[in-house]
Amino acid sequence: MSVEANTRAIEKDIVTDFSKRMSYGGYLDLDVLLSAQNPVSTPEHHDELLFIIQHQTTELWLKLVLHETIAARDAFDVDDIATALKCVARVKHIQKTLTEQWSVLATLTPTEYSQFRDFLGNSSGFQSYQYRAVEFVLGNKNAGMLAVFESDPAAHQLLSGLLEQPSLYDAFWRCLARKGYDVPESVLDRNVAEAYTFNADLMPLIKFVYENHTEHWAVYEAFEEFVDLEENFQLWRFRHMRTVLRTIGMKSGTGGSSGVGFLQKALELTFFPELLAVRTEIGR
After folding, report:
1. CA 249, 130, 69: angle at the middle one, nearest 5?
2. Phi–psi pair at 277, nearest 5 degrees
């Protein structure tokens, strides 16, 4: 079938009557999705739509990241390393998309943003419960964050539950212990409601796997997938910080934080510290 007059013919078998069939818009609930962008500036500022869509799409991707990281944790719980790493691999691709999205928001100039920023009140990305949930699943737990969500019972319940549950990293080490690896008791018995911190007891095991990776390929691969996951997360945090700096400079955040200074501190947080620390030990 050729194209004539720069017009592609509609094939005869293409469905056009959706009076009794599910349509694309119906399946995706587009009426709801596309009516959820409601600028609050008066008069409505042209660039506020960009700001809203940027954050809404981020929340959609975070929903999928949370879905996949919890699935990965659950797979480790049943000793299915392959499925867990498949989930992690998908998260890594989502992270790249999330990081690239900052370049779109960076087209918002300081002058443009200042014309509607005051209308945002105290709303801030700091209040993203899905972002906090992802941090909790990955091990960056902070019980103090729950206070931010006391007015949102569903979010508070989700985060409270994740706070008390093992993280992805915790589940991984428990999986290895069941497979016969010499995982220290200090790792297996730690208080999972606290933020994960560097544990020197793990270093001999991790170094052993790196130096004998051909015999322990699945574990070695998991180590490297986790390193990718952390690096991607840090790149996202860095692009976030730089975009905020580019847009509002050193102003305080709308949610009450110090802004760029607070975001810079996030770059010091870590998920899998031993997997980075072992780099110094390899080859000695």
Report:
1. 120
2. -65, -30
Residue 82 — pLDDT band, cuts 50, 70, 90? very high
Place of tokens 């720069």: 6
Work out the angle at residue 68's Cα, subtended by the Cα atoms of residues 66 and 74, and round it to the nearest 5 degrees.
105
Q: Residue 9 is encoded by which pair of tokens?
A: 């013919």
CA 105-136-193 angle, to 5 degrees, is: 155
Q: What is the pLDDT of residues 156-205, one digit of tens each?
A: 999 999 999 999 999 999 999 999 999 999 999 999 999 999 999 999 99
CA triplet 238, 243, 244: central angle to 5 degrees? 100
* Whole-prediction pTM: 0.94
Q: Which two tokens stand for residue 123?
A: 């709303």
Angle subtended at Cα 283 by Cα 277 and Cα 284, rounded to the nearest 5 degrees: 85
Q: Cα separations (Å) of 119 from 39, 46, 59, 139, 233?
A: 9, 14, 21, 34, 30
Task: Compute the residue count for the chain.
Answer: 284
Q: Which residue has the tokens 């998260």?
A: 91
Percentage helix, strand, coil, to 5, in the chain?
65, 0, 35
Q: Give the integer Cα–Cα distance in Å for 188 and 191.
A: 9
Q: What is the C-alpha separation between 76 and 11, in angstroms, rounded?
A: 47
Cβ count within 10 A of residue 206: 19
